[in-house]
Amino acid sequence: QQQVKQSPQSLIVQKGGIPIINCAYENTAFDYFPWYQQFPGKGPALLIAIRPDVSEKKEGRFTISFNKSAKQFSLHIMDSQPGDSATYFCAAATQGGSEKLVFGKGTKLTVNP
Amino acid sequence: NAGVMQNPRHLVRRRGQEARLRCSPMKGHSHVYWYRQLPEEGLKFMVYLQKENIIDESGMPKERFSAEFPKEGPSILRIQQVVRGDSAAYFCASSKKKETQYFGPGTRLLVL
């Protein structure tokens, strides 16, 4: 049973475009939603995280939008650059993130020059 | 300020051998998590440990896998009698209580 569904599986945009990655969850006990960026051969690195008491959070070019009633959240990357090409994972956890992370299957993003 | 350290980075084992993966958490972090990543897949939780205690092992296979986080030294994930299906990247993450999990670079296990 997949508790966090992520789409699309892959995404190609031109430099300057705004890729959007979507995630949906089932467990209403989730209260912490991070996004991780992973480059080939590396470990996941935290990009940005949100808690359900806010509907949007922005850090630099990265924005999370959160819709609690729909149980959905998404990542937007403004002014995307070739260096943003990586795999992005959404995740969810209970207890403010102190418990295990449940990951989506990932989105492979390619930003063409 | 060193991040999460894992070693070895790459490990090759033949079927039936044992694999030992080590994880040193970030300084000041007392919570350790192990995840497994299969090719083209997301990360799957295996086990959550605090010093000398296993808190949640709901993602660990019932046989051949074990984990520990002793009072002194790194956390160890041990896989006995490895099989080809154990080939994967194994990631360790650490955190302080109720805070962000920071991931190490992973150990890539290949079983021949």
Characterise this structure.
The complex is a heterodimer of chains A (113) and B (112). Chain A is mostly beta strands and 113 residues long. Helix content of chain A is 0%, strand content 51%. Chain A has no helices and 11 strands. In chain A, the strands form 2 sheets. In chain A, strands 2, 4, 5, 9, 10 and 11 form a 6-stranded mixed sheet that branches. Chain A is globular and about 40 Å long. With 112 residues, chain B is mainly beta. Helix content of chain B is 0%, strand content 50%. In chain B, strands 2, 4, 5, 6, 9, 10 and 11 form a 7-stranded mixed sheet that branches. A 4-stranded antiparallel sheet of chain B has the order 1-3-8-7, with no helix packed on it. In chain B, a hairpin with a 6-residue loop joins strand 7 and strand 8. Chain B is globular and about 35 Å long.
Query: What profile does the largest beta sheet of chain A have?
Result: 6 strands, mixed
Q: What would you call the shape of chain A?
A: globular
Helix content of chain B: under 10%
Poorly predicted ranges of chain A? none
Q: What is the arithmetic mean of pLDDT of chain B?
A: 93
Q: Outline the biggest β-sheet of chain B.
A: 7 strands, mixed
Query: What is the H-and-E element order of chain B?
Result: EEEEEEEEEEE
Question: How far apart lie the N and C ends of chain A?
Answer: 38 Å
What is Rg of chain B? 13 Å
Q: Give the N-to-C terminal Cα separation of chain B.
A: 37 Å
Overall mean pLDDT of chain A stands at: 92
Share of residues in strands of chain A: over 45%
Oligomer: heterodimer
Number of helices of chain B: 0
Unreliable runs of chain B, pLDDT <50, ≥5 residues?
A: none
Produce a short descriptive summary.
The complex is a heterodimer of chains A (113) and B (112). By secondary structure, chain A is mostly beta strands.
Write the layout of secondary structure elements.
The complex is a heterodimer of chains A (113) and B (112).
Chain A: E1 4-7, E2 10-14, E3 20-25, E4 33-38, E5 45-50, E6 56-59, E7 62-67, E8 72-77, E9 86-92, E10 102-103, E11 107-112
Parallel strand pairs in A: 2-11
Antiparallel strand pairs in A: 1-3, 3-8, 4-5, 4-9, 6-7, 7-8, 9-10, 9-11
Chain B: E1 5-7, E2 10-13, E3 19-24, E4 31-37, E5 43-50, E6 53-56, E7 65-68, E8 75-79, E9 88-95, E10 102-103, E11 107-111
Parallel strand pairs in B: 2-11
Antiparallel strand pairs in B: 1-3, 3-8, 4-5, 4-9, 5-6, 7-8, 9-10, 9-11
